[in-house]
Amino acid sequence: IQSIIAVGSGKLLGRGWGRGTQSHLQFLPERSTDFIFASLAEELGFLGISILLLSYGFFLIRILKIVKNAADSFGSFIGIGFFMMFIFQIVVNIGMNLGIMPITGIPLPLVSYGGTSLATCFIALGILESIALHQSTSSGMKIDSEEI
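Structure tokens predicted for Rod shape-determining protein RodA:
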């Protein structure tokens, strides 16, 4: 319930970076991992969270473009798997912070503190970049690495 209070107290522009009462007075447990969204919502407000969600939207659209232009079906399947991994983590973490899903400890990709989650995200991004590097053009010819 503290996460809902933190999200609501951010209002439009937030309380300011490092000035969140729910997160810094330890009312919000695990503020740097599980409840990072609530902490950011309190400090950055609706505007800051909207920018974060738009960034995730562009990020996910880019993954779908990579999947669409993949050179083979294996690359497409790997890309779809990573897309589903990222969207699942984003939806579950935000749902936990808004109180509509149970608390499971799933991190917010590329934002939550934690070495394993960050390493997994970077490995996924590296594989996605490899798929993008070897993607086919509309004429069916592969793009050379010098052209990118």
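The mean pLDDT is 84.
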